[in-house]
Amino acid sequence: PYGGGYGMVMMCQPAVDCIRAAKARCGGRVRTVYMSPQGALFDQAKARELLEYDSLILLCGHYEGVDERVMSLLDGEVSIGDFILTGGELPAMVLADCVARFVPGVLGSTESAGEESFSRGLLEYPQYTRPAVYEGMETPEVLLSGHAANIEKWRRRQALEKTRQNRPELLGTYGKYYENKGK
After folding, report:
1. Fewest CB atoms less than 10 Å from the CB: which of 11, 28, 47, 158?
2. pLDDT tens readout for residues 85-98
3. In whole angstroms, what is the distance from residue 68 CA to residue 169 CA?
């Protein structure tokens, strides 16, 4: 890098050529994103937003990143968390997988993505499967009852409790809504 320092920086020309070539191949609405720890934090809302584009171009920096002049060709930067990796390839895979889950036909059920953690502002409730008792650990009786309203109420309470325990910062507007609805 100019000015010295540690690490290596991706040069302008190869990155610019790559982005221009990729944009030329894309049709419709294109979003060009740089995977960077300095970007806006990626979340479910951002995934849904990116789904609105016909094409996504994900630029993955490596080591110290890319020449700052490349940024003029990009629509923004996205981070998957407050930590540093050697490159943007893994974050790009995370972003692609998360966005793909909202594409019709990717999941077995269109309702699946709406029931998961973060989709309604809370973590997801605990899940159970057969057998009803495993090594002395029992499935909650309400789940075996078949009573849909009681099951929904139990799930709402469990989601609130799990969110309180594991991610209390998520208990904003959605958490308060569900907390009141569950009483």
Report:
1. 28
2. 999 999 999 999 99
3. 34
